[in-house]
Amino acid sequence: MYIKKKKSWEISENEITPETIFLNRRRLLQTAGLSGVAMLVGKSPFSAPIDGFPPVRNQKYTIERALTSEKDATTYTNFYEFGSSKNIWRKAKKLNTDPWVITIDGLVEQTIQIDASDLVKKLGGMEERLYRHRCVEAWSMTVPWAGFPFSNLVKFAGPKPEAKYIRMETFFEPNVAPGQKQTWYPWPYVEGLTINEARNELAFLAVGLYGKALQNQNGAPIRLVVPWKYGFKSIKSIKRFTFTNEQPRSFWEILSPKEYGFWANVNPWVPHPRWPQDRERVLGGGTVPTQLFNGYEEEVAYLYKSEYTDNKRRLFY
Ligand SMILES: Nc1nc2c(c(=O)[nH]1)N[C@H]1C(S)=C(S)[C@@H](COP(=O)(O)O)O[C@H]1N2
Ligand SMILES: [Mo]
Q: Which CATH number applies to 13-307?
């Protein structure tokens, strides 16, 4: 994506609250059945690769389009932390994703810190789904993700009733990710959903692609996949899930709110201010018409009832 303004941004510290609870495998065993678990902050010494591969394909989420080649999907990627070109996949290898401590905080019963490999065990059996992916830049792909319904994480987190949104944030490691030395970007990358969107059956937390653990360039160890929204919503390499009653301001929204809004639902009738959105270039060859909600209207339209009936334009912004 193209940015006009260059600004310097204050990066806020990722502070850890004193209530933080750190869950790792051994501590879970030690404290099983106890309430008021001891707190411990730091890196898990017992980290392990994510297991559960190969995933079982969920036949409900298959697709009429041909699958994108694994090579295209893993070498043509958007990951601005590593630079703004599509061929950053080698640079992304430098990111260390194990251990990977994830914080779940905000309007939840208890702040939780848990290694990604332990978190996935809490999210149920791994499944595979074929999803379309439509980037706001008008290219698209169709790929098999492996992971878990986001709703399982919402259940695990135990949100308070006043929580209306989930804000997601990725890492900030400018020495590893050279794009993060570009101080005019509001690092770290942030995205958000309403809790109702996160509970939609399609909202998915992916840990794998093509039957294997995610490679760094696709968002290892864990990323969001919301196939009815433009691709920038599907934040990679998530480090923090914060439940909140304020609509999160996302990375691209801060940079250019008229182009990359909070909702960002795929909508062929609403052109981007600088290009049309009615067609898409399919990775691997050809173009096809873009569909409302990227073809997932049946599953998601209820979430946007008023906007959907009153004014389709609002689906994007
Ligand atoms: N952290 C982070 N997540 C991100 C991005 C990014 O630059 N940084 N790019 C987004 C965009 S614009 C798209 S299209 C998708 C691309 O996912 P893929 O590279 O796995 O196809 O990731 C999204 N998630
Ligand atoms: Mo994108």
A: 3.90.420.10
